[in-house]
Amino acid sequence: MDNRTRMIRWLKEPIFSKKIDPFINFLLAFAGAMLGTLVYPKTEMPFWQFLLWMIPVAILLVAFLKVVGSVWKSNREQQEMK
Questions:
Q1: Distance from C-alpha of 13 to C-alpha of 7, rounded to nearest angstrom
Q2: How far apart are CA 50 and CA 19, in angstroms?
Q3: According to the model, what pLDDT value does residue 2 have?
Q4: Residues in CB range of 76: below 8 A, 6 or more apart
Q5: Could you tell me which of 27, 51, 28 has the C-alpha nearest to residue 39?
Q6: 16 Cβ contact partners less than 8 Å away, ≥ 6 residues apart
Q7: 3-class DSSP string for the chain
Q8: Is 40 exposed, middle or buried (0-12, 13-18, 19+ CB in 10 A)?
Q9: Cα separation of 30 and 61, whole Å?
Q10: pLDDT score of 82 more than 70
Q11: For 56, how many CA atoms within 13 A lie in the half-sphere containing its CB?
Q12: Between 47-81 and 21-39, two packed helices, what is the crossing angle to 10 degrees?
């Protein structure tokens, strides 16, 4: 299999797959860590209070991403059935 067919197959795969998920998780974790290090010094709250504030935000973000992923996946499956 040459590089062109491998690239075409890779581009046709869904975004949320077992091959790509570890990379997405790493990028989201890295972005969250960088966001935390940029935002925390500008606040005047203690670190424990900052963590208590970030936990609900992270839960909401993960829930939002799961809903978007499931809607995207169901739309993709419907398109493939046509």
A1: 10
A2: 33
A3: 78
A4: 14
A5: 51
A6: 24, 69, 72, 73
A7: CCHHHHHHHHHHCCCCCCCCHHHHHHHHHHHHHHHHHHHHHHCCCCHHHHHHHHHHHHHHHHHHHHHHHHHHHHHHHHHHHC
A8: middle
A9: 15
A10: no
A11: 4
A12: 150
Residue with tokens 């609900």: 56
Structure tokens at 5: 């067919």
Q: What is the pLDDT of residue 60?
A: 92
- C-beta separation of 72 from 15 below 8 A: yes
Confidence at residue 27, expressed as pLDDT on a 0 to 100 scale: 87
